Every structure is written in structure tokens, then in C-alpha cells.
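Researcher: Can you fold this with LHQ in place?
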Amino acid sequence: MGYENILFESEGGIARMTLNRPERLNSFNDAMHTEVRDALARVKADASLRVLLLTGSGRAFCAGQDLGDRAVAPGAEPVDLGASIERNYRPLVLALRHLPLPVVCAVNGVAAGAGANIALACDIVVAAKSASFIQAFSKIGLIPDSGGTYFLPRLVGSARAIGLAMLGERLIAEQAAEWGLIWQCVEDNELHETVEKLLRTLAGAPTAGLAATKRALYASAENSLATQLDFERDLQRELGRSADYQEGVAAFTAKRAPRFAGR
Ligand code: LHQ
């Protein structure tokens, strides 16, 4: 499949996906959803890939749903937004969370509506200082979707979640990092190098261990302590039999850098 709304490349275990409709602030239309879905399926299927970067082109990360798209045109027949979520946003958020490798999001500019919450669905979010997060939904009579009502209270607590959701105000990247909404905020001119370094580190890490780490951490939101301890035991048992564990211990003992095999 050729892509017109995203850029996608992979090299050295690193896949890079760039939302690429800069004139519409990389907002999602159906075609972009189809391309993102296809690219994510390729990442999942390609065992040589060990980390995925998601970012946006131009001055924005993503402004959420394209509000000019036929499916949500004002004045038109009422549309079934649930169908759009079912077809596009729900599978996208779950695909990011379930990918068996770390997903880094470089928030290069404003992330609004579903765009903000798609960023939060990624595992490690690094934002440029000039970037911001806007739960724009309340301005158009909607609720935070794409996992917003799930991620926000878990990341920043109920009081801040409801303030962000109801007021739809711009949260600057520095504050987002202070609140624990994201991993890190860096100077604009340091975003590229910071993220590239992160990608190189993660591409050389024990991928199966990282995949199990995200599974365990995300499952903890639903589990009791006892269930979570059982889950940890099962994952650890599996990982303890892996070549990467053997290599990690061997490298530690020999005081050398490990060479992990990956997925
Ligand atoms: C846009 C958009 C956009 C189209 C900027 N669409 N053109 C909804 C419904 C269906 C199913 C499921 O889920 C959802 C989820 C959602 O995501 S709902 C929330 C949708 N997003 C928004 O409400 C955000 C709308 N955008 C904005 O509030 C502003 O554009 C932000 C704050 C992101 C950026 O503001 P500025 O930096 O001042 O840029 P701008 O507003 O001038 O935008 C630049 C251009 O991009 C402009 O076009 P123009 O032709 O005038 O240059 C905008 O119309 C266009 N654009 N967002 N979502």
C-alpha cells in the first residue's frame, strides 16, 4: 500500500511513522486512518523492528479528527460518531497499546482532541517545549475519546483530568511533564536528538522484556495486587527462559555491553 497521508520508514530496528497532513494540522481523515492501520500492522508483523516512533510533520502533532471531513460536517445529517470510533479510533489506540515493542511519541507541536489522546496511548511521550495538549472535545459538545477518559485520571489524577476535560484549555508541554502526563519536555531544538537517542537505546534493548513490561504495567490498572503478582510471575517465568535474559546476565558478569537479540 502506498501512503499519501503519512510517512513511514524503517531502518536498523527502528520504524518511524509521521502523520503528514500539515495543512490540516495532521488531523485524521478516513484515508489517514487506513494508512496508519496498515503501517501498524506492518510494524507488528516485522520481527526485525524493535521500536516505533510516532510524530507529526509541520508545526502540529495532530489536531484530532478532521472536522471538515464529510463524516462530521456541521449542518449535515446527524452522523454516527460511534461508528467512526469503532472503525478507526478504538482499533488505533488498542493497536498502539498492544504492539509488542515500545512506542515513542515525539510531540512536535499542538496535540488536540483525539490527537492528544493518541499521543497518551504511546508508551514514552517526549514533547517539544512549544508543544501543547488540548482536550478540545468539550468545545464541540463531545467527551474525551480515544482513551482520554481512561488515560487522563490515571496519569494526572481525577481533579486535573476533569479540569482538562471540561475546560479544554491548552496545557503547555512543560506543565504536562510536571503533572506526569508525559515522560519529558525538551527544548524545541533538542527534540530530534533526544528522541533519536531514545530510539537507539530502545532498539538495542531486550524487546520481549519491554513488551512484557508494557503488558504488565497496563494490566495493573485492572488487576488486584494478587492477580498482578501472578501475572508478574508468569511473565518473569517466560522471560527467564529467554536468550535475552541469558545474554543480560552473561554481559553483566563479564562486565561487557549486552547484545540483545530482540523480538
Ligand atoms: C483543522 C483541524 C481539524 C480540520 C486545525 N480539522 N482542520 C471526533 C469526531 C468523530 C469521531 C471521533 O472522534 C472525534 C475526536 C476528535 O478529535 S474531536 C476534536 C477535534 N479537534 C479539535 O476540535 C481541534 C480543532 N483545532 C483547533 O482547535 C486548533 O486548530 C488548534 C488549537 C489545534 C490549533 O490552533 P492554531 O494554531 O490557531 O491553528 P488553526 O486553528 O489556525 O489551524 C490551522 C489550519 O488547520 C486551519 O485551516 P486554514 O485553512 O484556516 O489554514 C484549521 O482549520 C485547520 N485545522 N484543526 N481538527
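Model: Folded with LHQ in place. DSSP finds ten helices and ten strands in the chain.
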